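Listing S7. Sequence submitted for prediction.
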Amino acid sequence: MARQGVRARSRAWRRSRPFWGGLLVVAAGLELLAVPLALSALPAAVMFGTVGAGYAISLIMVIAGVLIWSQPGQRVFLGLVAVLLSMASFVYSNLGGFFLGLVLGVLGGTLTVAWTPVGRPAGPFDSFGVRGAAAAVRSLAGRRP
């Protein structure tokens, strides 16, 4: 019984924030951080840019992923930061962590930007379609003196 309560609280917490986008951004940052640390094990490595920039990008991506979880109201800004840093990792961090960190970061950032809260009440422009636009034009045209 108590286990179901924990599971329900966990599910509610995940749904109240862009969980999967933050998880992918954290995974991208950790992958970008792991590639330079494992270069001694790889027989050949491709290095572009400076070493410090690769570490900074990966650490900022991990921090951005944690902030996505803790501050869902800032999701658009943090998602854009994650996408831009992922694109910069292509140049500064071994072709974006051999493309894996680049893809994870872009997917996580776009998921974060696209996420919307579940319990948000529908506003007047949330379901605005062609019929609604035509009705609005007709009502404005009828108001002319």
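Caption to Listing S7: primary sequence and predicted structure tokens for the chain studied. The chain has one domain: 2-117. The chain has a mean pLDDT of 81.
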